[in-house]
Specification:
Strand content: 15-25%
Oligomer: single chain
CATH superfamily: Ribonuclease Z/Hydroxyacylglutathione hydrolase-like
Order of helices and strands: HEEHHEEEEHEHEEEEEHEHEHE
Number of strands: 15
Radius of gyration: 19 Å
Helix content: 10-25%
Largest sheet: 7 strands, mixed
Shape: globular
Distance between the termini: 45 Å
Strand order of the largest sheet: 8-7-6-5-4-3-15
CATH architecture: 4-Layer Sandwich
Mean pLDDT: 88
Structural class: alpha/beta
Number of helices: 8
Number of domains: 1
Length: 362
């Protein structure tokens, strides 16, 4: 199924010659000498503690009765980083679930700030698991193993089905989609959409599988999930094809000037949100793992300041809190007590295109 799907693919983001996917626009590769590479690696490995919270983040035990209550409004639980649980028109959708203690091939690397607010055993029955790509902070073997004997259905971009089958998920429980291909589940329509990123897990696996964002539509609402993506014109194209968008979950964190094709700065995130023009913006891809050199609160600080300047509605729920598609964050914002007293990141003006913190310097 997977090999046939890819072999029959002839869009501009796939090369049949080398059997790899790629971004439509040429990627930007920044040359780093070996000294800079070692410096970045050393800081990522040995200084992460200084960019993490010093005490446990506030949590809310999910109110499952409230979450599962029938409603035309989508109910949402953010399990931090990019893991989301939705009740959308009575369908439970789990997106990019990572419940492991780390987001790396080795358990001693890229550890969570703290355990998940609830164990996987406490989750309600999950109808659909949606995956955006195969990086470790989005595709977690331990979590997939938990769902191996459940009845949950998997929806993925092209190529990921082979991995899931290797991990014991039956082929009939997997649907793969290319960009702008859709599938239906009960009353929902799920459409894979473009993203500017990459994929890969083991050596020599670079870009063998596709990466994507997702548009989720019920009879009442349209939601957008960015997955991981650098900034490009696909956000405008998605709004033109699927708008108006009610709720947009857009990546906001783990950026660095050295990987401009992987993640967006807060300024780029807000531009993407303006392109999408949702009713409400939810920042994701922050709050639980340290995958870059900025302080863990820096992305949400900057994006919320920029959103306020632009008059954009923002929703930043607490860990485990049940909110719905019409909720808004009420001050005080829960992460503010964790902001360093002498933050090195001034709030940039709304007109500033791209800003990196001093932590991104060599």
């Amino acid at each position: 199924m997977t090999e046939k799907a890819i072999s029959n693919t002839t869009p501009p983001h796939y090369s049949a010659a080398d059997q790899r996917f790629h971004n439509v626009r040429p990627s930007v590769y920044l040359h780093m000498g070996w000294r800079e590479r070692l410096s970045v690696l050393r800081r990522l490995l040995f200084t992460a503690r200084s960019r993490m919270p010093e005490q446990r983040l506030p949590e809310v035990t999910p109110n499952w009765r409230e979450f599962l209550k029938p409603d035309t409004k989508t109910r949402v639980i953010w399990f931090v980083h990019s893991t989301l649980l939705l009740n959308m028109d009575g369908v439970t959708v789990l997106i990019d679930p990572v419940f492991s203690a780390s987001a790396a091939p080795f358990p001693f690397r890229i550890k969570r700030f703290q355990p998940s607010v609830v164990p996987m055993e406490a989750l309600p029955a999950i109808d659909v698991i949606v995956l955006s790509h195969n990086h470790y902070d989005h595709l977690d073997r331990v979590t997939i193993d938990f769902f191996r004997d459940k009845k949950s259905y998997f929806v993925t971009p092209l190529g990921m089905g082979k991995t899931l089958q290797k991990w014991g998920i039956a082929a009939e429980r997997i649907t793969e989609r290319d960009w702008y291909e859709e599938c239906a589940w009960k009353t929902l329509k799920l459409t894979a959409a473009p993203a500017r990123h990459a994929s890969g897990r083991p050596p020599f696996d670079h870009n063998r599988t596709l990466w994507c964002s997702w548009v989720l539509q019920s009879p009442h609402e349209t939601l957008y999930y960015s997955g991981d993506s650098a900034y490009d014109d696909h956000f405008t194209a998605i709004r033109e094809r699927f708008g108006p968008i009610d709720l947009a979950f857009v990546e906001n964190g783990q950026y660095n000037r050295r990987w401009p094709d992987s993640h967006m700065t807060p300024e780029q995130t807000l531009q993407a949100v303006c392109d999408l023009a949702p009713r409400t913006f939810v920042p994701i891809h922050w709050g639980m793992f340290t995958l870059s050199l900025h302080h863990w609160t820096e992305p949400v600080q900057r994006s919320c300041a920029l959103a306020a300047q632009k008059g954009i509605q923002v929703l930043c729920p607490r860990l485990g809190e049940v909110v719905d598609s019409h909720s808004l964050s009420a001050p005080p914002l829960w992460w503010m007590p964790f902001v360093p007293e002498k933050t090195s990141v001034p709030f940039p003006p709304a007109s500033q295109d791209t800003a990196y913190s001093e932590n991104d310097s060599p």
